[in-house]
Description:
By secondary structure, this protein is mostly beta strands. The protein has 2 domains: about 5-280, no CATH class; about 285-405, Immunoglobulin-like. Helices cover about 10% and strands about 35% of the residues. It has 4 helices and 30 strands. The chain has helices at about 20-25, 110-115, 120-135, 420-445; strands at about 5, 30, 35, 55-60, 85, 95-100, 145-150, 160-165, 165-170, 175-185, 195-200, 205, 210-215, 220, 235-245, 245-250, 255-260, 270-280, 285-290, 290-295, 300-305, 315-320, 330, 335, 345, 350-360, 365-375, 380, 385-390, 400-405. A hairpin with a 2-residue loop joins strand 2 and strand 3 (about 35). It is elongated, with a radius of gyration of 35 Å.
Amino acid sequence: MTGYFECSDNAAHMPFPGIPSRLSYCLSLCTLGGAALLASGAAHAVPGVPQNPAVIFTEDFQNLPPATSGEILTGYQGVAGQTYSADSVWLTSCNGLLSSADQPVAGNDGQTASCGSQEAWNVTQQLAQALGTFKGQATPATNFAVSAYTSNNPGAGRVEFETVNTIALPSPSRFIAVGIDVAAANCYRASAPQLQFYLLDAGSPVTAGGQIDGCQGSLLDMPALGNAGASTGSQGAILGTHQSGGVLINTAAVGIRMTNANGSGGGNDHAFDNIQLLDVSPTLDKSFSPVTQAVGGTSVLTFTVTNTAELGAKAGWSFTDHLPAGLVVAATPAASTSCPSGVVTAAAGATAIDVTGNLADSMESCTISVSVTSNTAAAYANGPDNMESAGLNPPQVSTVTFTAPSTPPAATPVPVNAPWGLLLLSGILSALAGAFRVGHKRRQAR
């Protein structure tokens, strides 16, 4: 891991490890044409087993009639009404065009003039089609993508893509990441795009992971189109799905900004598609061991913080567990954690446990353990209503039961006035008398 996640597979384009196919992943989205919105909150599974991130927003640039020609990024509007901007250098010179392979190859709607040649325009069409193939589309020639073929020198660090308006989050205090599909040409002979994502938190840009090398991925042949010859083998396009690092966002909405650290027009030739906003918040789970204990005994309360499937670093999550009334931290808390930079505050007799920590890059999960006790016999349910947290999906309910100590039954006296009692007493006296006579005879024999 280097600050982003990438996945490349021409046969099955899979955004995250462990997902059988891109189709199964895409079916998890609630899609509205070119944009998708999904409520956050990972489904609880086995603690310690990462689950897929929740997709909050997707823009696939398909909200255009087929073969629309001459549209640029700033004139496009997604189904959800979202619009986009970029620095002017990324809107001219073969940049910012919404390209597709079924548009006229002549580029008479301003594309060829923008690119400086029909061949350059046709390569942007090839890249859009390659992204459609990469996505598994039935008709990849109809796929639209945003061109960035750099017939100019745009300059380093300029904005290549940005949302005009913020995108609402399901709730504040979430870890948010950005995903993108990139197709790059000429990687075998020229420089690569170096893309950097930022999340706009209350208008301020927050760096989301490290730079994305657009020439990292898998090769895909591009058939000839117009004046652009076929690109095959090692000279084919390089396709990849990339993801930024996760950032803890405390506001209720964010914007997306993507810059390019490569300011050169020598290479840096690419197209992009499928911008996604992802909720990569880890999930918190609780468990008690043992689940039944005598009053005054101790049970170990274990918290498990489980990462999402891309296994990116998550720094700065926190939670407070307000224990149910009657349940307290044990006299010997025995607090411990495997979480990087983890801090556990759990004093003996306390009614709350405070924890802060991180998940390191490539880390699936970490745990926190504290011993608890109760002097009152009862079942204690500890669930999401007991929690305050930042950057975490809430836990399900876990229950521990403390039981009163068992009292041995009192001896039952034998009622001598009952018929069976008299018989029992008579038998005992007869046995004693018999023993006395035997002993007496033995003494006389001496």
